[in-house]
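Figure caption, in words: inputs first, then the predicted bound structure.
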Amino acid sequence: MKEKITFLGIETSCDETAAAVIRENENGTADILSNVVSSQINEHKEFGGVVPELAARAHLENIDYIINKSLKDSDITLNEIDGIAATAGPGLIVCLTVGLNIGKSIAAFANKPFVGVNHLEGHALSPGLENKIEFPYLLLLISGGHTQYLIVKDVNDYEQLGTTIDDALGEAFDKTAKMLNLGYPGGPNVEKFSKLGDKNYFKLPEPIINKAGCNLSFAGLKTAVLRESKKINEEDQLRYNLAASFQNTINKILYKKTEIAIKDFKDKTQTKKVRLVVAGGVAANISIRENLSSLGKKLNFETIYPNLKFCGDNAAMIAWAGIKRFKKKLTNTLNISARSRWPLDENAPYMKGPGLKF
Ligand code: KG4
Ligand code: ZN
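Bound structure (KG4 present):
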């Protein structure tokens, strides 16, 4: 097989329209030949969250331009590309279909291999764009739709250790921002305003912190933020205190749950050199990074975070996952269709809804 594989990646699973051209280099990491991301912040600002039909329409309007720009920026032609990768799930079907269909059309037209990428695998492998990381590693995947601890054993080989039983962490950040009127997008604003507040001012619940292994829960915390937010009459300092207390509570939860996940990871893999990779949109949060790095110092494991530009949704990570799968001959036919739900560990128990007992 040719040494330096080059892929075009396309991402439209949620509210970012993105395309990128990525080439493997001799260090086993990636040369980013182009990385174009168009965010739909303005489309969804008014509603304080992503509106699927608006998102799909914006993808349709932008996708041709974004793909053309990524090819132009990369300075290479479609002919020089070894394959096309597009996100096939999980996510909003109306959104996924836009990128998936155009990816398949380009692959058919240019007669190139096609890979339908699991968006979560894109996040899981994203640190590899810049750092050569040996398998296995422990992954904390924290995004707008997912919150999971997974053992990454290899490309296409994942074991889930824990997950949220209700809200995703990014969702908890976004809802907190909405309740505190901190603006959209929520996560970065909670982080920004929490710096102005007293993190010990509000005592907030830490759901299932002492049970359920490294599974997580944020619904009770969200309800407590709602209750407190109604009492503070829009007073700025109290809003900042509540944002800071929320961020602090999240840090305490992640500290404890990561400690458990590290132990599980060690027991299951018997790995001497333990690495924790934190990926997904919420991994951009500096306070969470500092918190987990301090746990890493205490327990003697390495912490690895993708560059900020590869934390949020992007197509570089999709092209990269495409290259990795292509090299393992995990390509897809053009019959592949979009999937709204697509766990990385298909054997993991479904952890939502009534009837869960710990
Ligand atoms: O990975 P991502 O871009 O999209 C999904 O796959 O869901 O993650 C988006 C999530 C949003 O909930 C956003 O508010 C959150 O990541 N986020 C943050 C920060 N930056 C983005 N949450 C906390 N602090 C941040 N700095
Ligand atoms: Zn994502």
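The chain has two domains: 6-130+309-327, 137-305.
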